[in-house]
Structure formats: C-alpha cells, structure tokens
Amino acid sequence: MTKAQVGVLLALAALLAPAAPAAPPTPGGSLREDGAPCPPCHCKDDTLDCTGLPAPRDASWMQALTGWNETGLTKVLLDGVLPSATLAPLPAMPGVSTLSLRNNGLTDIASGAFLALSGLRALDLAHNKLTADAVRADVLRGAWQEDSYEPLSLTSLDLSHNDLHSLPRRALEHTKALRVLRLDGNPLRVLDHNTQAALAGAESLQVLGLSGCGLAALPADAALGLPRVLHTLDVSRNALTAVPRGLPSTLRRLVLDANPVRTLPAGDSLVPPFLHLDNLEELSLSYMPILEEVQVAAFFGLPRLRALSMAHNKALRQVHPAAFSHLGPSWTLTEVSLRNNSLRSLPPRLLAWAGLTFLDVADNPWHCSCNFTTWAAASLKGVNVNTRDRVRCSSPAELSGQPLWDASSTACSPELRDGIPPGQPSLFANALLFVMTASLVVLAVMVVRRLLPDRPPRLYGRAALARSSSVSKDPLYEAAAVDED
Ligand SMILES: *[C@@H]1O[C@H](CO)[C@@H](O)[C@H](O)[C@H]1NC(C)=O
Ligand SMILES: *[C@@H]1O[C@H](CO)[C@@H](O)[C@H](O)[C@H]1NC(C)=O
Ligand SMILES: *[C@@H]1O[C@H](CO)[C@@H](O)[C@H](O)[C@H]1NC(C)=O
C-alpha cells in the first residue's frame, strides 16, 4: 500500500467516523449518507459504481464529479454508461487510482484525456472499439511541464477486446511505469514492427497478455521485440503450431494454452522447445485440442520449473518416460496437473513423485493393469493427489469406473493378472493352446506309428507303464505318498 493510499484510507476513515462528518463541497448529484457527493451512481466504500445506469444524455454530470478526491473515492467504474463514442477529457480526480471504462463502444479518445487523473494507476478500456489511432502517444500522456509531457503514473492498462491491429510505435512512451498490459482478443495476427517497437519501449512491463490475438507465430527473435523485464506472457488461444523460439529468458510464467501444437517438440525438430528459459517457474500447456504426444526431453532446459499444468488435452495419449529428463541439476518441479488428458498409464520414472506437493491425474482413461495399480498404490501413496476419487479405471471392462487406488487387489487377482481380463482374449488363448497341444499329440502318435510299425501296441503300453512306475521311485513322490499315509 502506497503512502497515498494510506492517506486516502485515513481520510475516508475520518470522513466516515460518526463523530465529526466533515461536509465536503457538493458540486452536484445526490448526496451520500455521510454528506459526500455521489452522482447518480452507487457509492460503496471507496468505489463509485455507475455500471448499468441508463446512458445520460450529456456528459455534464461527469463534471459534477470533480470533488471526488475529497470524498475518499479511489475507484470509479463507468462501464457501459458513456453517452458518446469519443471519450472527452476526464475531470480532475486526483484521488482516483482505478478507472474502468469497459463496454462503452468507444472508438476514439481525446488527446490528454487522462492528464487530470494524476493518481491513476489502473485504466481499464477493455471491450470497446478502439483502433490503433485511439491509443496514440498523446492520449496516454500527462500534463505539459516546461518542455515535456509528464508521464502518466499508470501501472496497469487493459486494452483487451478492442479493434487493434497494431500499436503505434510511440503508444507507450508516456507510460514508463506500466507493468501490466493486456491486449487479449485484439485482431493483431502478427506482432508487426510498430507493435514490437511500442512493446520494447515499455521498459517496466512485466506482464503481457496476448491471448486470442490470432497470432500464428511470434517474431523470430521474440526477445528483442518484447519488454526486457517481462516475467509473465500469456499467448493462449492463438494459432501457434509450435512453442515460439527465443522467448525472453526473464520469463517466470508462460501460458501457451489452447494453441494447435501437435507434438512437443513440434514436428521432426529435436531442439528442446523451452531451451534457455532459465527462470521459468510456471508453464501451462492445457486445452490444446490436437496435442498428441510429448516426446523425449521435451522439457529440457527448465532448471527452475516449479509448476506444470498439462491438462484438458483430450488428444494427449503419450508422454515419453524421459520427457522430463535433464529438467535441471536440482529437481524443482513440485506441482503437476495431468488432469483430463487421454493417458492410460504413467511411466514409473516420469517424475520424481515423492517430491511433488500437488498432483492431479483425475479424468484420464487409466488402464488398471496389475502392474500399474500396484505401482500407483505404492508410489503415489504419500503424494498430495488432488481429487483422488476422480482417478478411476477405464479399462479393463471389469474395473471400469473403480477408483484406481482400490483396484490393485482386484487387478492382481489371477484372472486379471497383468491386465488380461477374463473373457474373449483368454478364451481365445486357451482354445489356441488346446488346438496346438492336440495337433502335437496327433503328430507324435503318427511319428511313433511310423517308427514302430511292427511292434504290437501292447509292448508300447508296457514300456509306458514301466516308466510311470519309475516315477513313483522319485523321492518327492515317495515323501508325498508317506504323508498321505
Ligand atoms: C482535490 O482536487 C482539487 C481539484 O483538483 C484540488 O484543488 C484539491 O487540493 C484536491 N484535494 C485533495 C484532498 O487531494
Ligand atoms: C476435458 O477437456 C475437454 C477439452 O479440453 C473439455 O471440453 C471438458 O470440459 C473437460 N472435462 C472435464 C471433466 O474437465
Ligand atoms: C510389469 O512389471 C514387470 C516388473 O516390474 C515388468 O517386467 C513387466 O514388463 C510389466 N508388465 C507390463 C505389462 O507392464
């Protein structure tokens, strides 16, 4: 909490204290219970919420809000209420740190629209119709001071779900403190030179949202076109067919969900896709509709990886037993979700199971062979497995629907040993064995008849009898016979 915020809270507390409710100026609108001005909106705590109001005819009521900063209001929500598609300069509201202008159909913004909001930290312009022209540098600037514009104090800017095909090169030059930028759901398609220049210029940017921007690739050396201190990148819901190369090594969190990646590494490539992401701690590879296979050493080069989400990939049937080999000299991976894939079993050496603090393997079609259930019961016993009751067998048919953990005793009963269920396969095997034995016997009889054509069958019978009596001389047999007595 900054000093300013503390100040605002103290002011608010003083204002709300029943003993001496100061009477601030009331420039217009209705009054709050405590006498503070509250235009035709809801005031609650430090928030002025005008969401869902019928659109006022003119913008004059906004001028009535100029006294806000003295009322302790710090959050202003003007979602879906603005009368015009062009945002006029906002009145002075130095106490306001959060401003939301979502869903206003805005197509344009007046120059210097926010310069009177000297305390503004978070600006939400999502779900409008802004094009590149509307986010030019002079929109996002502060007041003119001597010979230059003051920077805006913005740290978070949400421009998601607008109509941006690109960002102007200098769009962010007056927002040097910007740490979070959301561009999700804009039709960017590529990060062109202007967009890259704008992003590279945002020198404090740590979090960038590029989800659902129709990106089929990132620039070959993405690190050069992205901010230098970036630690979180969301490129989910794009058209990426491979993990982008050359991502900045500063990344700590990477979200690649819902991209059409078929294998990891992609295609015939042998280059580990995450090489050089030395600082990455969290990786999400979920909701990938066509991801089928994770190959050997796919996660090579992630020495700090702590959490991996590889869930809801309905086509994922195979994870190579050595997919995580060479993850790093010291194993740091402790949280893993493999939920809702199409995995039938887990390679015993896939992960350092005992070191996991969280594991989710629910909603996979587990094949409950004796081997697998025995291993799972023993190796995953101490692991904090999420939603254990949703970890169920899908095959063999006899065990379908049973919790994996209960299945080992049944799976290892003689009929089901090694996962061969009774029924057709074993019937077939028995039949085959019978036919083979029968043919051998027939063959043997024929051979014997050929070799001994003249001997009377009686002799052969005697010889056999003699041999069988010699069996009774076997010490084991005798011991057994003695026991029987
Ligand atoms: C509130 O804003 C007005 C007009 O900008 C300014 O004169 C006044 O000093 C501000 N008051 C506080 C408490 O920030
Ligand atoms: C499993 O994943 C599919 C595809 O991603 C999704 O549509 C479905 O809702 C998920 N099911 C569960 C139980 O989470
Ligand atoms: C079961 O486990 C044994 C030893 O652990 C192994 O040799 C065998 O191949 C496994 N069988 C199956 C079907 O996985």
UniProtKB/TrEMBL annotation:
Pfam families: LRR_6, LRR_8. Coiled coil: none annotated. It comes from Thrips palmi. Residues 1-22 form the signal peptide. Keywords: Leucine-rich repeat, Membrane, Repeat, Signal, Transmembrane, Transmembrane helix. The chain crosses the membrane at residues 427-448. One of its GO terms (cellular component) is cell periphery. This is Biglycan-like. InterPro entries: Cys-rich_flank_reg_C (IPR000483), Leu-rich_rpt (IPR001611), Leu-rich_rpt_typical-subtyp (IPR003591), LRR_dom_sf (IPR032675). Residues 364-413 form the LRRCT domain. It comes from the Eukaryota.
